[in-house]
Amino acid sequence: MWLNIYYIFCYIVFGYTLAIMASYLYLILQSFRAQHKLSINMPDDETIKYQMKSSPLTPAVSIIAPAFNEEVTIIDNVYSLMQIDYPSYEIIIINDASTDRTLELLITEFELVEVPYDVAMRVPSKPIKRVLMSTNEKFSKLKVVDKEHGGRKSDGSNAGINVCSNRYFVCTDVDCIVEPMALYRMMWLVVNSHVPTIGVSATMLMSNGCVVEDGHVVEARVPNRLLPMIQQLEYMRSFLIGKLGWSTINALPNISGGFGLFDLDVVVKSGGYDNRSMAEDVDMLLRMVTYMKNNGLDFRVAQVPKVCCWTEGPSTLKTLYRQRIRWARGLFEIVSNHRRLFFNPHYGPIGAFTLPYIFLFEFIAPVLEMCGFLFMIWLIITGGVNWDTAVILFAMIYMFSVLMCFFLLFFDYTTEAVPWFNRPKSYAKLLMMALIEPFIYHPFITYCSNYGYFQFLRNTTAVWTPIQRRGVKKKTK
Amino acid sequence: MDSVSVLTYYLRLIMAYGSYYVSYYTDLLRDYPYEVRTAAWVIQGSIVLMIIISILLARLARQRRIRERTLKSLEARYGDAVNLIFTDGVNPNLTREELLSHFRLSDRDAGKELLRDTLEKRLFCTMVYTKLIEDTSDESRRANLHLLLDIFGIPAFLENEVSLGAMRIKVQSMTMIRAFKLYISPWVINKLLSSRKTRVRRLAMYSSVMSSSDSDLDYFETDFFDENCCIYDEIELGYVLHRRRAAGLKLPNLAHWAHLQKNDNTKCLFVRLMRRFDQREYCSQLEDLFRESKHKKLIEEVSRTWGYLHYTEAEPLLVETMLTQPDDTKVAIMHAVTRMATGRSLHLLLDGYENTTNPHVRFEALRCMYSYGDEGRQVLHQLEASASEADKKFFTFFHNPITLDKIPLDKEQAYHPSVETFLTQSNF
């Protein structure tokens, strides 16, 4: 009987591996299809800017950036946001009851005074104490909201939604470095869509290793340290193959909390961000999709293939460990809270394809991998390993993962998605990471995911710990 | 042997090698379990694909290098002279001879092919296009630009690209034609009006509206625009109509076009465009849309358009219907009568303030009173004096210099949909 169980397990794992490979190939094909479509529908940056800047009809955008204890960087970051190139936008900084001098610095630097502002509570958030605007015309785009401490970014974002004046808004982190053309790229997909676009996901990469001048990335570089370098590859794979691929069949499951654009009406009608959720960005998008589908409304969620935003990622094992545990808990939460959407064609391609994919190949995978790893140890101890077969199966998985990296780099080079496309050294570094990732990084991530699931099941209280930032290289003049 | 035969020969050769390899390998792996066979195939497939991708990457890199080299050579040959056109202080009406002398060419050279191949022509267009869109000056340089493009044979080249190029090239060429403001023959464009690619079809449509003679515009007197218009369509239509007006061509009757559409959102688009192009003479044609439409947004757009265009004849109709309308429409009507400023509708604003519990509508009524002139402000002060504690918050906005600055309804900015509700949308 044990032998039968052994064989069944082996066949399941083998079939599962082939299914994962097939799904990756499908996503690669879809992302190439998206690239082809965008080459026709999305002109170069200069043309987009030329056409949108000259029109009074270009929709205005609000940028919402919650801040908590950011006294060191807040002024630079706000100046950086003010340099975004777009004809009409407002910046809403949410001070989530910072205990340091964040608000004080903002008031002094931008000449802020309190204005009458009776805020509509469109979505739930902690009470807003006051709204401040600048007396200086130069900073008229800026609005600062001082609110009671909500403890999470989602509460700050909800407060921003409550004071936002435009139909479209972008949610970002105050320490993100936004590309000057980001809003044009995202809004182009909104203005060009013949069905209502309820959200646009922007490609976001890690700023570790990049050179920054005046709040802009002037030299995009692959990080020098091992951990951020592998994560960069992971981010590129996620945005340029995963999300872009899903977006072609309108099945994008997530708009990153770091930089994403939303339609205010739909966000308000679906209840805004959930302050209790560990994966508030996925949760909100799924609620938006549910709202649209339940009301029989047509919609689209788009993905920008070019990099729009840079964020500093974890550079130590400890911070990465915490982040991945949080992500794993978030994934578990999504699977349990939105279970009615999974394998449900009523919710369109998201319910029929993306969520089943997430369940089968992202949620179950770490558990299956862990079981496989333990099973392998047991087989080694009992001497039951057929080494020839084991080596060739491992080689298959390994070669396929390297092939994925080849596709990714090819895609990046042809679309010029990331501004290092003309630096062969960057590609060589990323390729090297693809070679070592399965040995050192993947097992660690698998462990974190399993531990995150375990914590979720034990109902351990989730603690939101901010990532320890090392800062980016600043170019001195 | 011609190129097709050579290609066929090599394809056959590759297929022969491929089938030999497959049968050899199948035979070799025959006695192995199927998982080993599958793995072996995946490994080999991956290696083959990696080699193909590497070759493609190398080819792309080479193409990119050639492109960069060609662009550099073009910059060296013609860059300075092209820059001259976009330099301040240059005579806006250079003669052909003067321009040729800047390029160090004689009139005889201009007849020759100055750009060697398609790549050079495309890159030259890109070079001029990039400089053009970076240039923020007015139209005064247009004559020099057209002369320059003419010398290099660009109009005919772009027309050819639109006609015969791949889909991406068609779109790029039409975008450049739009930016260069070149004339394009209708037969080239008309073919694209039925393209299966929406973007190509739309670009062709707008190019056609931009350059059609007055009688050709009749072609659009159908529900041609009705396939789900997007914001970009409005941007483009606004642009091409602006171009027509600048070129002294007749503008279509947008109220009539609005009537022809079946989709209410498309109707809204044309009604909005009417106010941008000051088509006051056609405002009366919107009355039946206002009376008969059940679409809230359309009624709001018609009211706003009447307000912007000071179509005071519609004021009694607006006054008569306001109180039966939903809240957002009430606000649009109040804005409209405020902009008309006939001095006869202050009572409407007062009704708007008093007959609703919606704080947004009440605030907008006060805002309109403030913008109505001295008479309106007097009423506003009286209301403030008698306001209850709860209502006092409305009036604080009229005392703070920052918020007060944004209160008046500004005609210049008001076309922008978000500006009109800048302050009020999230209040209360």
Please give a structural write-up:
The complex is a heterodimer of chains A (477) and B (428). Chain A contains 14 helices and 13 strands. Chain A starts with a helix and ends with a strand. Chain A has helices spanning 2-41, 45-53, 74-82, 102-110, 153-163, 182-191, 226-248, 264-269, 280-294, 317-337, 348-363, 365-382, 387-415, 424-457; strands at residues 61-67, 89-96, 112-115, 128-134, 142-147, 168-172, 177-178, 197-206, 211-213, 216-219, 259-263, 300-311, 473-474. The radius of gyration of chain A is 23 Å and the shape is globular. Chain A is an alpha/beta fold and 477 residues long. In chain A, 47% of the residues are buried. Chain A has a domain at 25-59 and 167-354: Spore Coat Polysaccharide Biosynthesis Protein SpsA, Chain A, CATH 3.90.550. With 428 residues, chain B is mainly alpha-helical. Among the domains of chain B are: 3-61; 292-428. Chain B is built from 23 helices and no strands. The chains are: A alpha/beta (477), B mainly alpha (428). At the A-B interface, helix 1, helix 2 and helix 13 of A face helix 2, helix 5, helix 8, helix 10 and helix 11 of B.
Short description:
The complex is a heterodimer of chains A (477) and B (428). Chain A is α/β, with parallel strands linked by helices and 477 residues long.
Biggest interface, residues from each chain = A-B, 61 and 64 residues
Q: How much is the average pLDDT of chain A?
A: 88
The assigned structural class of chain B equals: mainly alpha
Characterize the biggest β-sheet of chain A.
Answer: 10 strands, mixed
Report the total helices of chain B: 23
Number of helices, counting only DSSP H or I runs of 4 residues or more of chain A: 14
User: How much helical structure, as a percent, in the residues of chain A?
Assistant: 40-55%
Radius of gyration of chain B: 32 Å
